[in-house]
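Handout, section B. The chain below has 361 residues.
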Amino acid sequence: MRMQFEAREIGAGLLTATLLCMAAPDGYAHHAIVGNFDLQQDVFLADAVLTEFRFVNPHVYLYLDVTDEQSAVTHWRCEMAAASRLRRRGWTAESLVPGQVMSIDGSPAWREENVCHVGMIILEDGTTLAEYDGRPSAEEVAGGLVSEDAARSRPARLPNGQPNLRGPWVSTQASLNPPEVEPTPEGARLAEGRVRHFDSPALRCETVNIVYDWAYERESNDIYQDEDRITLQYGYVDLVRTIHLDRSDHPGDIEPSVTGHSIGWWEDDTLVVDTIGFEAGVFDHLDWPRFRMHSDQWHVVERFRVSPDGRTLTRTYTFDDPLYMQGTYSGEDTHSLTTEPYVPYACEDLGGLNNLRPEGE
């Protein structure tokens, strides 16, 4: 049985102190968490004492002590969005301090007692905090771009004549929309039963793939450019790729990896990148519960080009996989030059049993 907590007045309203059957607000009922939390139920923790605030990716956690009417203390763990998302909404690692007294209005976990997802935090003075407050639009994210003067002073080419791709760059498109892949029968078989809330590599602080992660979460990516190689430093999960410009073909003894092996060349002012040598893995798990896989035969071709004003980097890509995908697919994403440098993703999986598939499922 779940614990129940006494109702109390906060500000002008009354928040219910027990588990209620009610729908969560639209912004809160995000598809990414429905597999981990029961959004049709409400749990309210009154006068909880914060013992620890872990401002990390892929999820921020509040650790709280809750005292009931019999003076028994129960330890709770409550989840929020990724630290990188909250940071863009004004949060920092010091936004909440151990020892603070607060009340939590949220939704209970499916598979663990005393675990919740935070809908709202109510501080002692009545101030309310929510993870979706201040969520920036793509245009607002673009507000962190370098000034036009700074963009003009950025050289269009390097001393060796190559177009200047050097970053940092951040995605400013409204959403991530990877192509909707039609799997082969074998691809569908391997994806069967996989769901985002158990099987997402991101929950384990692992890379998803080179296509997906470049634009995901609007992290700042950095590009380092030398004469014979270009290095892509992904802001999401700290993936690093090397593009070899000093060879025209792939080696015959590639060790399969999540990044594969990339060779690149210039077609006019466009960098073309050909990548093979992947280990089999996840292509798309964005639309819960859909899962799509790629095999070790996945082949990706990307094209990177900077706009004439030096402010926008466009990547187009095509890919195919004869084992797990039917046909060839294409997509595009855009990034803008930014003042936000690359920072380590600082990923730490603290999800506990709630993010693990129970034995037998």
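Note. Helices lie at 83-88, 138-142, 148-153, 185-191, 196-199, 210-215. Compare this with the example in section A.
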